[in-house]
Amino acid sequence: MELISFLNYRKKSTVSKAKKGDKEAFLALIDENRLNLYRVARGILIDKEDIEDALQNTIIHSFQKLNSLKQDEYFRTWIIRILINECNEILRKSKRVTYLDENNNTEICSDSYENMDLTRAINSLSEELRITTVLFYFEDMSLKDIAKILKIPEGTVRSRLTRARVKLREIISEVEYDASK
């Protein structure tokens, strides 16, 4: 328990330093959350360039608005919320149909969760189910934190996860059935 307290203190300390203008501390926070941010962006956006734009805009906006973070321990939740807003803005601006193209989904970061059938299945979910699934299963966020980030009730988060599991089960079974032929 002492180690967890120390790590939380260290993280708060890093956020405090970043808020005071320490660029190295800010970069350390971004580096610490880099893979999480990438996974969330990839869960919302398909196009590699859009993912890169969302990540870049998130870093810029979070640096500019860092003083608006009220509680240092919620940095991760706060920056993911900024990222989701950036992704939604990109989707609103583009208003285009995006088809899943394996050649278009080049990795920016190494992701140990890479499983193409699962990735395709998750990408085929509606945006609201996809975001909720990525935050819960890949980012290990609690229902409460997801509800706060998405600004929806916890019950809605639970029902979206249930719907996503049902759809994913259907999609994966179809893939397995097709593979067995």
TrEMBL record:
Would the keyword Transcription turn up in this protein's UniProt record? yes
- UniProt keyword annotation of Transcription regulation present: yes
Enumerate the UniProt keywords alphabetically.
Sigma factor, Transcription, Transcription regulation
SUPFAM superfamilies according to UniProt: Sigma2 domain of RNA polymerase sigma factors, Sigma3 and sigma4 domains of RNA polymerase sigma factors
Q: Where is the RNA polymerase sigma-70 region domain?
A: 29-96
Task: Please name the Pfam families in this protein's record.
Answer: Sigma70_r2 (PF04542), Sigma70_r4_2 (PF08281)
Q: Which InterPro entries match?
A: RNA_pol_sigma-70-like (IPR039425), RNA_pol_sigma-70_dom (IPR014284), RNA_pol_sigma70_r2 (IPR007627), RNA_pol_sigma70_r4_t2 (IPR013249), RNA_pol_sigma_r2 (IPR013325), RNA_pol_sigma_r3/r4-like (IPR013324), WH-like_DNA-bd_sf (IPR036388)
Q: Which residues belong to any copy of the RNA polymerase sigma factor 70 region 4 type domain?
A: 117-168
Q: What is stated as this protein's family in its record?
A: Belongs to the sigma-70 factor family. ECF subfamily.
Q: What is this protein called?
A: RNA polymerase subunit sigma-24
